């Protein structure tokens, strides 16, 4: 029964687009991730996709428009909607997805779920 | 398709222990709340209870021990576990609970869900 300090968890790794699971909630993984550069266009047919920016700035490209997020800003990509996260500089993000959701939307290209 | 700025949402109200719903995710309400003083002992038999401190400090009393949270710290109270949030000074929290979950664990005493 300990608090989960997000900055301390983020300080334990340096790679990008490799989420680390730091907790669980109602069948979802609570994950922190460092992002830089463009990710890949993808969608999740079975789940919404939760983003909260902890540090830096993140752009979520959509097929129609885009969403710009800074620290303390949150966005939920609705289930089934194609999106592509992009960050010009490194940004730190809290992600929430159901346990086992492939981060690319495709199990063959997804990052492994690593618990820290 | 707009970002949800948590600080701006929190600036729209001043009362305590009255969560405002600012978004939705996989059947859950994403809520911000200002807390000060003790809440009530309660539990949720059907759901975990997600807390992320955005500003200030929060203590979550448990029947065995307690968890102290500062800014950027998160804690998930497991389903069915009795807990009582307490804050000596005002703190700002991101909460996630399934839509319709009574914040006190009891519909007769729960705060209304208000969407902002």
Key descriptive features of the protein:
homodimer; 116 residues; mainly beta; Jelly Rolls; eight-stranded mixed β-sheet; 1 helix
Model description:
The structure is a homodimer of 116-residue chains. With 116 residues, chain A is mainly beta. Chain A has one helix at residues 6-10; strands at residues 4-5, 20-25, 28-38, 49-55, 58-62, 66-69, 73-77, 83-98, 114-115. In chain A, strands 2, 3, 4, 5, 6, 7, 8 and 9 form an 8-stranded mixed beta sheet that branches. In chain A, strand 2 (20-25) and strand 3 (28-38) form a beta hairpin. Chain A is globular. The two termini of chain A are 15 Å apart. The mean pLDDT of chain A is 95. The interface between A and B is medium-sized, with 33 and 33 residues.
Which CATH architecture of chain A would you pick? Sandwich
- Rg calculated over all Cα atoms of chain A: 13 Å
* Coarse morphology of chain A: globular
CATH 4th-level superfamily of chain A: Jelly Rolls
Percentage of residues in DSSP E strands of chain A: over 45%
CATH topology of chain A, what is it called?
Answer: Jelly Rolls
Average pLDDT level of chain A: 95
Termini gap of chain A: 15 Å
Low-confidence stretches of chain A: none
How many domains would you count in the coordinates of chain A?
A: 1
Please report the total strand number of chain A as a whole number.
Answer: 9
Question: What is the top-level CATH class of chain A?
Answer: Mainly Beta
Number of H/I helices of chain A: 1
Note the quaternary state here.
Answer: homodimer
The helix/strand series of chain A, from N terminus to C terminus, equals EHEEEEEEEE
Q: Helix content range of the residues of chain A, please?
A: under 10%
Largest interface pair: A-B, 33 and 33 residues
Largest sheet of chain A: 8 strands, mixed
